[in-house]
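Worked example

This section walks through a single chain of length 385. The input is the sequence exactly as stored; nothing has been trimmed or padded.
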Amino acid sequence: MAVRAEPGLGQAFSRAEIGAFVDEVVAPRAAEFDRAGRIDLSMVTEFAARGLWGAVLPTTEGGTGAGMTALALVHEEVGRGCSAMRSLLTVHSMALYALDRWGTEAAKSRWKADLVSGAALGAFCLTEAEAGSDFTAVRATARHEGDEWILDGHKLWVTGGQLADVLLVFARTANGPAVFLVDAASPGIRRIPVSGITGTRGSQVAEIVFENCRIGSDAIIGPAGMGLAIATGVLDIGRFSVAAGCVGILQACLRASVDYANTRHQGGALLREHQLVQQMIATIATNTRAARLLVRQAAQLKDAGSPDTLMATCIAKQFAATSAVAAANDAVQLHGARGCSDEYPVGRYLRDAKVMEIIEGSTQMQHVLIATDACRNQARVVDVE
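Given that input, the structure is written out below as C-alpha cells.
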C-alpha cells in the first residue's frame, strides 16, 4: 500500500527540475525495480514531495499541475528514467482525473486530497479475459441493492494492482455501462500478483477479483449508462501519458546510442563515424523530435478544450509507441552483444517499449481509429495556433 506523504509544491514543472530528479533519483534505480519486479515505496514519497501524483489536475482543481503540456513533460522525463514508475503514474492519473471530473462530492471528499498528495494510489481496472479492453463487452457486473452496489468480476493486467488503494472499475449495470471508484481494502476483493511480464516489470501488475464486493452508492463515477463516455475520456488521458512516456524512451535510446557510439571503436574508428550507425542515430533523433511535437500538439488541443485532441492523442500514441520500439531495437543492435545483457539499459528499453505498443489501445486499434477519422473527415488538417 502507499505510504502517507505531504502534498508537494509542484505547481510549475520545468524540464530542468524534473530531469534532474529523474537523473539523480529515478533512473539509477530503474534496473533494480525491473529485476525485483516491484518498486521501493520510498519512491512514492519522492514523487509526492515534488507534487507529481497530482500533476494531472490544475491547481484550480486542487492538483499541482499547470496544464497538459506540463503533464506531458512530467511523463516524458519520468518515462525516460523508468517506465515502471511512469506506468504507475499513468493509472493513478486516470483514476484521479475520473474522480475529479465525474465523481460524487462524497467520493471527492474521501479520496481527492489523498490521491493528489500520493497518500493513496489509484489503479485502472478494465481488461478482462474475454472482452480484452473492449469496454462495451466487459462481463464484470454491478447490481444495485439498497444503498449499495455489489460488484462481481475478474480484471486482468491491472498496473499497480498489487499496491493500489483505490480502483477505477468498469462494469455492466441494469442501466448500461458504468464506472466505479472502489476502496481496494473492501471485503470481496482479491489480488493475484502477476510476474514475468515482458516490460515495466516494476509496475506491480495484478489480477483483481471482485466477489460479492459491496460498495457505497457514492462510489459510482457519473450516472449508470454513461460509462462509455467516461471511458473515452479516461482512456484519452492514459493514451496521452503513454505517448509522452514513449518520447522519454526515445530520448533515453538516443542518449544511450550516442554515448556508446562516442566511446566504442570498431574497425579502427569510433562507431559514430560509420555511416550505418549514423543512419540509426539520425532516425532515432528525428523520430524523437517528431513524437515530442505530436504529443505537444495533443496537449495544446487539450488545454484549448478542442475535441480534436482525441484524434491527436491517438496519432501521437501510435507514432511515439512504434518509434520507441524501432529506436530501442536499433539501440540494442548498435550495442551488439552488450545490448542483450543487463550491462546496458537498452534491453530494458526494448522490453518496455513493446509494452507501450499494447497498453491503452494497441497500435492496430490506433490504426483503425486514425483511418476511420481520416476517411470520415477527408483528411482534414488540424492546426494549433
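What to look for: The chain has ten helices and ten strands.
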